[in-house]
Amino acid sequence: QVQLVESGGGLVQAGGSLRLSCAPSVSIFSIDDLGWYRQAPGKQRELVATITFPRRTNYADSVKGRFTISRDNPKNTVILQMTSLKPEDTAVYYCAAGSGGRWPDYWGQGTQVTVSS
C-alpha cells in the first residue's frame, strides 16, 4: 500500500501561481507513473498531468503551457507547478500513482485550489 500526501493548495488570484507537492510513502524510484487529477464541483474527475519514469510528461490541453509536472528525486516528491491560473482551474487536486500498468492505483486525499477572478 502506498500513501500519497499532498500539500500546497490554497487561494490565489487569477494570473497567480501555486506549487503542489505530493510525497509518496515509498521511494519515488519504485513508482512508474505519477500524476495529478482534479475535480471541480459538479464535474467528473479529470486528468491534469502525468510523469512516467524517468521524466516523460503528458498534459491536458487545458493546462499545456501553464502547468509543469516534475519529479524531485532528492526530496522524494512530485511537483505540479501551476502558473497563469484561471478561475476554471478551481478544483480539488489529487495526486495519483501507479506501477506495472495499473493506473491509477493509489490516490492522495486531495488539496483544494481556489482561483478568484
- Morphology call: globular
Query: Sheet bearing the most strands, described?
Result: 7 strands, mixed
Output mean pLDDT: 96
Residue runs with pLDDT of under 50 for 5 or more positions: none
How would you describe the overall organization of this protein?
It contains no helices and eleven strands. It has strands spanning 4-7, 10-13, 18-24, 33-39, 46-52, 56-59, 67-72, 77-82, 91-98, 106-107, 111-116. With 117 residues, it is an all-beta fold. The model has no long low-confidence stretch (mean pLDDT 96). The strands form two sheets. Strands 2, 4, 5, 6, 9, 10 and 11 form a seven-stranded mixed β-sheet that branches. It has a four-stranded antiparallel β-sheet with strand order 1-3-8-7, with no helix packed on it.
Could you list some keywords that capture this structure?
52% strand, 11 strands, 117 residues
Q: Care to give the gist of this entry?
A:
The chain is mostly beta strands and 117 residues long. The chain has no helices and eleven strands.
What is the topological layout?
Layout: E1 4-7, E2 10-13, E3 18-24, E4 33-39, E5 46-52, E6 56-59, E7 67-72, E8 77-82, E9 91-98, E10 106-107, E11 111-116
Parallel strand pairs: 2-11
Antiparallel strand pairs: 1-3, 3-8, 4-5, 4-9, 5-6, 7-8, 9-10, 9-11
